[in-house]
Amino acid sequence: MAIIKPKRTSTASNVPTTSDIEVGEIAINLADKIIYVRDTSDNILDLSTTSLTDLGITSTSTELNLLDGVTATTAEINYLDGVTSNIQTQLDAAGSGDALAFAIALG
After folding, report:
1. How far is CA 32 from CA 20, 26, 39, 80, 87, in A?
2. Residue 70 in contact with residue 76, Cβ under 8 Å?
3. Which end of the chain, C or N, has fewer beta carbons within 10 A?
4. CB within 8 A of 9, min separation 6: which ones?
5. Whole-angstrom Cα distance, residue 19 to residue 27?
6. pLDDT tens-digit map of 45-78
């Protein structure tokens, strides 16, 4: 069985250079708990500093946490456009006047 051993250091603040790792190779700083990779443009990337903005995500982490566990489809969420309060309350209010008047009229 092959064993993969990335380049590593236990020296704090030690960052690999392009002479230390090849394109696609990773290096780990155990003291700082940072993983580095060399990309195809010869940049050494610190994979621990990737933020939502770096990934092109404009939502905040709070907004994303609100959606955690939601099982609704996109279509179902789109039905909520313009909803400003509890849906059942809106349905009850919308139906109560017409339904009551209709029931009284029919006696």
Report:
1. 18, 15, 21, 45, 49
2. no
3. N
4. 27, 28, 29, 30, 31
5. 12
6. 998 876 777 767 788 888 888 888 888 888 888 8
Helix (H) or strand (E) holding 49: none
- Domain range enclosing 80: 7-54+74-106
Count of domains in the chain?
Answer: 1
pLDDT tens digits for range 84-96: 778 777 777 776 5
Looking at residue 29, its amino acid is N
Structural domain includes residue 20? yes
Torsion of CA 59, 64, 66, 71, to 10 degrees: 120
The whole-model pTM stands at 0.47
Residue 85 forms part of a structural domain: yes
